[in-house]
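queue> pop job 88
queue> type: inverse folding (structure -> sequence)
queue> payload:
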């Protein structure tokens, strides 16, 4: 049988090559080998970050990003049911409603961020893509969320992130809003008054923890 290290490499290579079937096969091998699924999520996240960087520098284009994300999603769908519940549910740091904003039909990296938040101890409700401001808020109210995390891949969709933040503030709602996505910068997040920002899944988790810490401490 192939070593686990080799299988991790096969998974990453499949994502880089936009080979969905190979990604699924590698993910199933990791399940069969009872590998470290948290490591698999981290590896996929790192690979997607590298692909995202090439997209930002113009080495790759949107179709490449979407194909890589589809491969990652296919692998994630196989791995996620096997995450050890005792480790995932050992604590609940807070509740997060996450999705891609309305008008943006891409969910590149969204599932990885959602999974990383879950494995870090958050309760997560993933609404998927093309989520309206009202849908974000309605779900957040329904589940008594602490954080709404809104992603955008298209530059024109960033306005919806601003709309979400303004609606939450105008209605005096208790939710903290985090944003992220390809065209979203730290400067833009600060400009529109986002409570948190994540350039990748790891930063998103750390940002969410910081947001919860401030929220519990009564810091606006």
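queue> result:
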């Amino acid at each position: 049988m192939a070593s686990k290290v080799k299988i991790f490499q096969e998974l990453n290579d499949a994502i880089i090559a936009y080979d969905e079937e190979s990604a699924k096969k590698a993910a199933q091998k990791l399940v069969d080998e009872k590998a470290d699924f948290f490591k698999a999520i981290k590896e996929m996240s790192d690979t997607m970050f590298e692909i995202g960087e090439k997209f930002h520098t113009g080495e790759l284009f949107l179709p490449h990003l979407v194909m890589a994300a589809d491969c990652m999603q296919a692998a994630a769908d196989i791995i996620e049911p096997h995450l050890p519940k005792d480790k995932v549910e050992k604590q609940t740091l807070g509740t997060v409603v996450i999705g891609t904003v309305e008008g943006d039909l891409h969910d590149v990296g969204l599932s990885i961020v959602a999974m990383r938040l879950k494995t870090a101890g958050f309760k997560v409700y993933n609404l998927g893509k093309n989520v309206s401001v009202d849908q974000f808020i309605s779900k957040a109210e329904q589940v008594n969320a602490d954080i709404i995390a809104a992603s955008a891949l298209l530059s024109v969709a960033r306005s919806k992130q601003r709309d979400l933040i303004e609606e939450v503030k105008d209605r005096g709602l208790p939710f903290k809003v985090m944003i992220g996505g390809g065209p979203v910068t730290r400067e833009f997040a600060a400009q529109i008054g986002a409570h948190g920002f994540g350039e990748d899944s790891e930063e998103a988790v750390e940002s969410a923890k910081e947001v919860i810490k401030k929220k519990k401490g009564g810091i606006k």
